[in-house]
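Researcher: For the annotation table, I need structure tokens for AAA+ ATPase domain-containing protein. Please keep the output clean. Sequence:
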Amino acid sequence: MEEYLKLIPSNASLLSAYSSISTSWVLFKTAYNQVIPRQLQEYAVSKFRSYFRRNPSYATFIIEDLWCGLGRNQLYDAARAYLSTKIGPDNRKIKIGKLEQHKNLSSAIVEGGKIVDLFRDITITWSVIQEEQATTTANTRISKDGPPVMTHAPSRSAYQITFDNKYRGTVENYYLNHVLDTYKDLMQGEKVLKLYTRLDKYEGERWKCVDFRHPATFDTIAMDLELKKAIKDDLDRFLARKDFYKRVGKAWKRGYLLYGPPGTGKSSLIAAMANYLNFDIYDLELSSICSDVQLRKVLLSTTNRSILVVEDIDCNSEVQDRSKIIKEEQLNPKKYPKAFTLSTLLNCIDGLWSSSGEARIIVFTTNHKEVLDPALLRPGRMDMHIHMSYCTAQGFRVLAFNYLGIDDHKLYQEIDGLLERTKATPASLAEELMKSDDVDVALGEVVNFLKRKRGEEDEIEEDTKRQRTA
């Protein structure tokens, strides 16, 4: 024990050592400040700190095409356009292609590819990842001989950005706004309308889109001039009344029902409305809906300033007049499999769910208005009912000018008389006008067609009379 105590230095020795170290430190600090330039000092300090902090804390943002399943994520579209301007020689593997309607090639980074961007001396790394959608009721396949089989919806691409967490505020408040502003500049005056569709009932709420370049306009539609003007005026009034809708407490939306026989131009009118308003189109197939939940998600994932189209709505039993089919449904329930309920559809287009967006237009088309449930047709749901009738003399003038470039012809009087007594659709007349570039020959084909059509209708009327008198 005494041997160990002898090894402990005395207080005088400790005090002498402390004095020596203090003196050395003062001399070193003085020499450091006087001899070494301040810039070199700061560089040395930064290197020293970075050495002991080699693993900084990183933050990661995920940018999906749908924002929490509630709507289209504008930041996703902005990121895709923004990154196309950042692809450089270091990106040796990229996606590249050209759409027929575009003049230039388009490029994009591939899955697993990365782009390093610099913003205010902050290094931000972009990459493309694949995210598999969660299994939900909407992703259930019905097995014929057993219980439902749960399936995963297809994976979807998402953008991921990674950066030092200490710059999180700058990235969130300034950098992402910079991406959005760049996107707006790129799209300035060059907006291409989109047609969104979803054909697979197992795709959840996901929409697929293509460029929409349908040439139809109100000038080219073959319909009554007064009705055409009434539709345009109604659309203009709707767009100009945002404050009015807010003041009266109504969702800023408008519903149109287009009804009439096939070939009367219902789809062309929708295209003309989209081109007139510069609105994207969402074409919804009700047969692709598996449940009430999926219907809500699908409708909520549409964007503002868009047209939701449900064509041939009469083909779905859920929206037909329940009083006419309820007995047959009770006797044969398998004939009416339930995908969604009418009440859910009504709530999405006219209830609380309808207030989730702005400047929304809903268009239903049907060949048989009489079979639809009256609850679907009342004002506030379908505000304007537009009858797409057979071609009139005014409508034929538009067709003739579109196809032949003429304003008048000696056969017009005869054609007008035949149109008054014959049920001919604009589509069928357009087919006749396309048979020849010669004006006289083309209009002659129209006259022959209308005469044949009139003869067929006369025969049907005679058969009907004979059946009544028999």
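Researcher: And a one-line annotation?
Model: The chain has three domains: 58-132+154-190, 208-387, 393-469.
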